[in-house]
Amino acid sequence: MLDKIEFRSRINNLPNQVFSKTGKAAYTSFSLDDNNILHFVRVNTQKNWEINIDDLYAVYAKNDFINTTVIRDFKNAKVNSPSVAILMAINCIDKRGYRI
Predict the structure, then answer these.
(1) Is residue 10 in some structural domain?
(2) Would you say residue 96 lies in a domain?
(3) Domain span at residue 66?
(4) At residue 27, does pLDDT exceed 90?
(5) Taking a C-beta distance cutoff of 8 angstroms, is the pair 25, 88 a contact?
(6) Which distant-in-sequence residues (6+ apart) come within 8 Å of 43 by Cβ?
(7) Is the alpha carbon torsion for 77, 37, 66, 26 positive or negative?
(8) Is pLDDT at 71 greater than 90 in this prediction?
(9) How much is the pTM?
(10) What is the pLDDT confidence band of residue 75, given thresholds at 50, 70 and 90?
């Protein structure tokens, strides 16, 4: 399991585009601010999204298995699919949702 420093480092080095688990959505224009909020855009809708990476790390650290339901149930999050996509992109979970 990654520590929080390595987790943030990987978030800072996300690729230009990240695809959802199903491949039906893509996210781009990632920018991490000083408050640990990751801002990004969903490509097909051009809608702006944001994720608190402290919350995302807490989900990652607490759960051996992570899918959209686990994300949703944590603080009633509304960024389920992009959260899973980001965790997959930074090699924290595998395609099945198990923590690496």
Answers:
(1) yes
(2) no
(3) 4-89
(4) yes
(5) no
(6) 17, 25, 26, 27, 28
(7) positive
(8) yes
(9) 0.94
(10) confident
